[in-house]
Each structure stands twice: as structure tokens, then as C-alpha cells.
Design goal:
Blueprint (H helix, E strand, L loop, with lengths): L6 E5 L20 E2 L2 E2 H11 L4 E6 L4 H6 L4 H9 L3 H8 L8 E5 L6 H6 L2 H4 L4 E4 L3 E4 L4 H12 L2 E7 L9 E8 L3 E9 L10 E9 L2 H7 L11 H10 L4 E5 L3 E4 L3 H13 L2 H21 L1
Parallel strand pairs: 1-4, 1-6, 4-5, 8-12
Antiparallel strand pairs: 2-3, 6-11, 7-13, 8-11, 9-10, 10-12
Bound molecules: 1-O-phosphono-alpha-D-glucopyranose.
Length: about 300
């Protein structure tokens, strides 16, 4: 029986340059879809999957993230005085118990593999999850929960996977599939950002991972890979060299690439439409502008 997964790493050290000037003073992960920051979606997903320890790999300028998970005594007192229990309940979802959350600094931007490696001492000898908050996944059962359930049967290593158009494959880690079992594929290789036309498949890695602690050992000896960065993909591919299993998991749900402006806007619309109190107004507005666009053509 594989060990239960109770620790998750959230790499949040990136500069978010694609969202400048906003990210000059606001961490990208605090940017909001409707009224919740990206990081809240990631945390809620992890909680649903049974994660108990939340490890943030941060960098300079990410103080707002630490404050976000803290209690806010003055604000809470004010809301209590005014009897705003609904808002107090919303605030509760942002709080972490002392000791549940840890922050590690990545001192140099050396890549995703390096960011994960920075948390090695907090992981020890247990399997762990990695969540990239840029990938927001709308799903009935959270993506990580689906993976944790599948992992309880398989053990090994598991990455979330999704078919992407072939011309987009070079923006992702891409799987070389050994055996396709439907929801799950076993893999024989993984390439980070393959050059156009060289991808082994169009099954891309999405930012959810359940990894064996051995991946951290693999990271000890990694040199920089694609884009001159230390790549998590390469450390996972190393598992295959050592004959340790790696699976791709085709999750049920819709993934939004909130690392891009277009993906972020699409997520904003989708999450807005999913909210009962916003649905009617927003969909009427969208219908109107589409009508106007069509009329102008
Ligand atoms: C990272 C990973 C890549 C993965 C992607 C998913 O890339 O390195 O393997 O496919 O996330 O979003 P990034 O988007 O940070 O360049």
C-alpha cells in the first residue's frame, strides 16, 4: 500500500513578468479570479485531496502571500462587531493553523526542479504532491483528489496529463506513452518543452504531481536542462532510468492556463458564470457583446 500523501509543495517564487505592471507589487498568485486569489484555488484543491502540510517555495517580494494566510485580527473584529458572519466564514477558508504552513525561500531562479528541491528537508522520506497555482482546474472532484485516489492503487509517481494541440506541445513537458489504459497511461519517457515537431506525443504534463521522495534525490545531481533551468520533468524522467514507475493521469475537469493573460481571462469568465449571483448579468453581457461583434462583421 503506498504511503498517504499529506504534504504539498507550491512553487510560488516566479516573477510573473507576463502580468507586469500588476505583478510589480502584487504576487501573481494573489491575482484574483472573481474574488479569490489563484493561490486559494490551489489550497482548496489540496485540502480536498487530504493535504495537511502546505509548503510554499517563495522569493523576494512575496510577503503578501504570507499575510494572506494569516489571521487579520482588526478586520475580523470589525466584521464580528457588525454581525457579518458570512464574511467571517469566507475569511476562515484563508486561515492556516500554526505549523500547517511553511515558507522556504528559493534564493535564485534556477527553475521548477530547483524550487521543488529547496523543500527537500521538509519532505523527508514521504511521497509528496506538487501544485502549480498557474494551472487552475475546475472539476467536480478536485484534480489532486482524483490523483491521490488513483495513486493509492498504483504508487510510483504520477503527473496530471492532458491532450494539447500538437503545435502547443513545445510549451509543456510531454509524455512518451508506453501503455495507454484510458484514464491512466504508463510512460517510458518525458521531455520538457520539446522542439517543434519532435514531441513524442501530444499528451502534456499539467501542474499537478504526486512524486516519490526519490525524485528529490534525483534533483541533487541534476544539471540545467531545457531553457537553462533545472527541470522537474528531467528528475521525474530519471525515475524511469531507475525502473521506477511513472504514470500520466488524464483528469476529469477543465484546465485554465492562468500563467497567460488569455487563459486568465477565460478562467475569470468561466468562474464568473459558475457563480449563481453573477451568472445572469454576466451571460447577458457576453451575449450582447457577441451580438455586437457579429453585427460589426
Ligand atoms: C511547467 C512544467 C511543464 C508543465 C507545465 C504545465 O512549465 O515545467 O512540464 O507542462 O508547467 O503548466 P512552465 O509552464 O512553468 O513553463
Amino acid at each position: 500500500m503506498p504511503h498517504r500523501v499529506t504534504k504539498a509543495i507550491f512553487p510560488v517564487a516566479g516573477l510573473g513578468t507576463r502580468f507586469l505592471p500588476a505583478t510589480k507589487s502584487v504576487p501573481k498568485e494573489i491575482m484574483t479570479l472573481v474574488d479569490r486569489p489563484l493561490i486559494q484555488y490551489a489550497i482548496d484543491e489540496a485540502r480536498e485531496a487530504g493535504i495537511k502540510e502546505f509548503i510554499f517555495v517563495t522569493s523576494r517580494g512575496k510577503g503578501a502571500l504570507e499575510d494572506y494566510f494569516d489571521h487579520a485580527p482588526t478586520l475580523e473584529q470589525e466584521l464580528r462587531k457588525k454581525g457579518k458572519d458570512d464574511l467571517l466564514d469566507i475569511l476562515k477558508t484563508t486561515n492556516m493553523d500554526s505549523g500547517e504552513i511553511a515558507y522556504i525561500r528559493q534564493h535564485k531562479a534556477l527553475g521548477l526542479g530547483h524550487a521543488v528541491w529547496c523543500a527537500r528537508r521538509l519532505i523527508g522520506n514521504e511521497p509528496f504532491a506538487v501544485i502549480l497555482p498557474d494551472d487552475v482546474i475546475a472539476a467536480e472532484t478536485s484534480c489532486l483528489k482524483q490523483m491521490v485516489d488513483a495513486y493509492a492503487e498504483t504508487g510510483g509517481n504520477m503527473v496530471a496529463a492532458m491532450e494539447v494541440p500538437p503545435e502547443k506541445a513545445s510549451s509543456y513537458g510531454v509524455l512518451d506513452v508506453a501503455d495507454d489504459m484510458g484514464h491512466m497511461v504508463s510512460i517510458k519517457g518525458m521531455v520538457e518543452k520539446p522542439a517543434p515537431g519532435t514531441a513524442p506525443s501530444n499528451l502534456a504534463v499539467i501542474g499537478r504531481y504526486i512524486l516519490s521522495p526519490n525524485v528529490l534525490t534525483n534533483l541533487n545531481k541534476l544539471e540545467s536542462g531545457a531553457g537553462g533551468e533545472i527541470q522537474l520533468t528531467d528528475a521525474i524522467a530519471d525515475e524511469l532510468q531507475q525502473e521506477n514507475a511513472v504514470y500520466g493521469y488524464r483528469f476529469r475537469g477543465q484546465r485554465f492556463d492562468c500563467g497567460s493573460k488569455s487563459g486568465f481571462l477565460q478562467a475569470t469568465v468561466a468562474f464568473g458564470l459558475a457563480r449563481e449571483e453573477l451568472r445572469d448579468d454576466l451571460s447577458a453581457y457576453i451575449r450582447d457583446i457577441v451580438k455586437m461583434e457579429n453585427a460589426a462583421e
